Amino acid sequence: MHGSPEERVPGPAATPADGFERFLREHQAALLGFLARRSNEEDAKDAAQETLVRLMRYRAQPPEQLRALMYRIALNVLNDRGRRDSSRQSAAHVSLDEDFHGLPSPEPSHDQRIAHEQELALVRAAILQLPARCRQVYLLNRIEGLSYSEIARHCGISVKAVEKHIGKALGLLRQRLKQGGYAQDKDEER
Fold first, then answer.
1. In a domain, 100, yes or no
2. Which pLDDT score is estimated for 92?
3. What is the full DSSP assignment across 65-101?
4. Are 119 and 186 in contact, with CB atoms under 8 Å apart?
5. Is residue 24 within 8 Å of residue 52, measured between CB atoms?
6. Which residue range(s) make up the domain with 153?
7. Whether the model pTM is above 0.90
């Protein structure tokens, strides 16, 4: 015999870590291709990295078991990412790097705000030009939300008189706003 094991000089022995690193070098491109067929290139690179990190837990396994395990982990990574993206609705997210000029804003544009303010000024001026009692009845109905009978009690007039004042107010406002160009513009838009 060659002596006891203690007397032998150990040479560079292959460790499980060496076999694992060789396995990774040999299979990394295949893994990337596998993932790229199921997602875009950037996501495939990220998923491959995550797969290899998870696979490190099993580095002591024999290479023939590592291959099947690697693909199973890769599929799990893709499934996990799909669930996460779905729950976060990542497809609806907008990159901060993109140009925001094409995105619709819930806020009106500056021109729309100016036009709205001008329309309000016309309506306000037309309301102020109404006769006092007519204006009072109109504002109690349209702004305060009082019913005709409530207005009648409040002003000490009949419901029929309230109806006449509202009718007169609406007619005068329509006429004044039409003269101011507001009603014509609105009719043209319809």
1. no
2. 65
3. HHHHHHHHHHHHHHHHHHHHHHHHTGGG---TTS-GG
4. no
5. yes
6. 121-189
7. no
